[in-house]
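#onboarding

Welcome to the new folks! Below is a worked example of what a typical request in this channel looks like: someone posts a single protein sequence, and someone else replies with the predicted structure as tokens. Don't worry about understanding the tokens yet, we'll cover that in week two.

Example request:
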Amino acid sequence: MIDLRSDCASCAGLCCVELPFTRSADFAVDKPAGKPCANLTEDFRCRIHDRLLDSGYQGCVTFDCFGAGQRVTQEKRDVALFPLLRQLHELLWYLDEAGRYGPAADLREETEALAASPVIDAFAVGELRARVGARLGEISEQVRGPAREMRRDLAGARLRGHDLRNVSLRGRLLIGADLRGADLRGADLLGADLRGADVRGADLRGALFLTRPQVAAARGDRETRLDLDRPGHWG
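Example response:
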């Protein structure tokens, strides 16, 4: 069984080397792909790990490789495969969840085969992502029933206490949205941008395709109900 949880202790800091940073609200500096982050130590640890948020590295706090980093490191594979393998591991995570509700075994098998290949073609990954996305959409509609759609741009929207059960929020911009106390059970959150969204007291149990990076990007508290682990920086 492929481990889809990141294990930084078993990785050679690939996300700190192979991925680019763009100076923004997520990163304090620019860094090109292939160049080690200045905060990466010789033993592949982060020297500011305990103060990433205060140092302007929000993007590191919300990043998750879904286990791709340690797989590349442990299997001694070409580190250039890391970004593509990370995408495939993310697809496997989605397909595992989808498989609880509908047929997904065929696409999971195909994704596993591509992830195990010594050569991973970017075009093949993109084509597979499209087909997986379509399947997830079909399963989501079957689970949620009649579609409840909302506008695409919900950045800063005031949705405090709203009943959003079974609503499709797929790909929606929810940056900085006020979702305090909202009921999001069964909502489709595939690809929803939750950066800075206030989910304190919200109910996210059973939300479809909600990932750890999305949760980490939001602002929650002990009253937030969800099926995933609660991020440590939530307090």
